[in-house]
Design brief:
Elements (H helix, E strand, L loop, with lengths): L1 H5 L13 H18 L36 E4 L13 E7 L5 E5 L4 E4 L4 E3 L1 H10 L27 H10 L9 H4 L2 H12 L6 H11 L1
Antiparallel strand pairs: 1-2, 1-5, 2-3, 3-4
Length: 215
Amino acid sequence: MYWEKSKPRRWHTGPRCYSHADQMAALAEELHQYHHAHPHYPPSRPAPPRRRRRQRPPFAHTPSGPGDIRPGTWLWVKPGGLHLAWGDIHRLAMLTRLDRPYCEVWLDDTTVHRVRPHLLILERTPVVNAARAAGVTSLVCGSGPSPRPLLPQWRWLGWTLAEHIEHLAADPEPQEEPVQEGLFAAEHLEGVAEITCGEWTPLPWIVELTQEVRG
C-alpha cells in the first residue's frame, strides 16, 4: 500500500492508473471521513447573564490631565473585566459612574456592567485629537518603531482608572472659600447706606443687622 501511494508504479509500461485529479479526489474523501470520525468544534461562549440595558448616556468628557476622569470618558475594558459571554477581549465602553471597588460602564450593545477600576484604561484617541488641536505636535519620546514611550507629562494616558482614583485621593481638588461673611461685613453695609441715602450714617435697620452678624 505504501509503495502504491508513494512510489511510482513500475509493474507495467502503460499509463498511470490514476490521474492527478483522481488522487486529489481520493485524498479529499479520506480527509472528509477523518473529520467526520474526529469532529473538532471551536469553544462556545456561555449564555450571557441578565444585564441592565440603557440608551446611550448623555455624557461627553475628554480628560485633560491625570485624575480628570468623569462620566462620558471612553475606556477600554481589559480581558477579564466582563463576563465570558462578552468575549475575553478588549471592549470599548463609556464610563457612567466612577467609584470603588467597581465602576459602571456602558457598552455599545446598550448593556451596563460593573468593572473593577484596575481593568479599565483610557481610550487615547479623543485626548490625542484634543492635544493636536491645541498645538501639541508629539506625545511620545523621540522617533523610531512603535511602541514608543510617552513623554513624562503624558504618561497618565497609560494609567488604569485605579491609578487615576489614587491620584485624586492624594491630590484633592481645592475647596472654594465661603463668601457669605464678606458680603455681610459692616464696611459693605455702610457703603450701601452711603450710596443709597447719600449720608455718612447707615440706616437703623442696617445697624441692627450688622450687630446681629457680629454677635
